[in-house]
Amino acid sequence: MEKNDFKRFCVVIILTLTLHLITMPVLLYGQKMNVFRISFLIFHNFLAFWVYFFMALVKKKKGFVEYNEQTTELLRKEPNKYCILCDNYKPERAHHCSKCRQCVRKMDHHCMWLGNCVNNDNLGHFIRMLLYAVLSLLVLSVFSIYSIVRRDRFGPPFLFRIILVFVVTIAVLSSLLFLALGFFLIERFIFVLKNLTYLESCNLEAFKENGMHHLIKSPYNLGWWKNLQVQMGKPYFLYMYGEEGDGLFFEKNFECEQWPPRQMVDRWRRYNEIPFLP
């Protein structure tokens, strides 16, 4: 965790809390805490965190393998870990992204919505962003359905009908998005508890289908509690900030140079006539 990133995170939290302390009393003064106001406040808080993590993912933490003295020295010691496209050291769990055109440390996948890769440095933020997106959609769906069921009439009839159509549309869209993102979040969180990336999970499925069961055991699985801290940070931050590791070296439960072994992956790709990855 870098000090500048931590300071920036603290400033954002303080500003967010200050904004809420100013606006909430004004919003609630002299009014009943009805369902609408409670839903609005909850949705506003979830949405604020979603926006923060989304912007953090878009603006920084690209996770590229840098060309410096450390990687040059590592390449000299381990010449087999080399990317011909980057002409640089390629650490274990790294992949060359065809979109970013660089090797990405502990690459999970390239996200077109973010415009960069989910990787060693931002995987925790990606899970948090998904979590607050799902929570925001849940609140929005429940409140929209509640409003449709109650049908509190106000204003002219034509205006009420227009608003009702608008609310029904929001309820349908938010419910569908909630289900889609909810299943996606569950899948990704299972990967977190197993300390797996999406690309590694694809390799596992392929090896199972081809009978290579001796490659299924991952050296990076340290137990769900340790895996959670490695991916999401320490519990005293409520898993809201921080990822561990530099993306070059990883703690393992058994020693191996690379997992899955490169020669086994190459043999499987040759057998299935799949192009080789750089």
From TrEMBL:
Entry keywords, A to Z: Acyltransferase, Lipoprotein, Membrane, Palmitate, Transferase, Transmembrane, Transmembrane helix
Coiled-coil stretches: none
Transmembrane regions listed in the UniProt entry: 9-29, 35-58, 129-149, 161-186
Enzyme class: transferase
Primary residence: membrane
Superkingdom of source: Eukaryota
Subcellular location: Membrane
Catalysed reaction equations from the record: L-cysteinyl-[protein] + hexadecanoyl-CoA = S-hexadecanoyl-L-cysteinyl-[protein] + CoA
Recorded GO MF terms: protein-cysteine S-palmitoyltransferase activity
Matching InterPro entries: Palmitoyltrfase_DHHC, PFA4/ZDH16/20/ERF2-like
Family according to the record: Belongs to the DHHC palmitoyltransferase family.
Domains: entry comment: The DHHC domain is required for palmitoyltransferase activity.
Name the record gives this protein: Palmitoyltransferase
